[in-house]
Amino acid sequence: MAAPPVPPNPEVRRWRAAVGLAARWHGPDSPEALAARQALRHAALSADVRDALAAGHLSPAHRRDLADMLLDGAA
C-alpha cells in the first residue's frame, strides 16, 4: 500500500510525523498520540483555511461567515 501524499505545509508534515512517533512510542490510543492527532487536525485545518483565503476561493459572504464562526467560538 502506497503512503499518502506528503502535504506541502511544513507544519502539517511536522505534526504528521509527531503522530507517528507518539503512536509508536506510547501506543496508538495513548494521550500523547491523541494530542498529536488533535494538533495535526488543527494544523491541517489552519493551513487549508489560509490557503483558501490566499487563493481567493471564498466570496466576501463566505469570508464573513467564516469570521463570524471563528470569532463566535473564541468569545
UniProtKB/TrEMBL annotation:
State the source organism's domain of life. Answer: Bacteria
Q: What is this protein called?
A: Uncharacterized protein
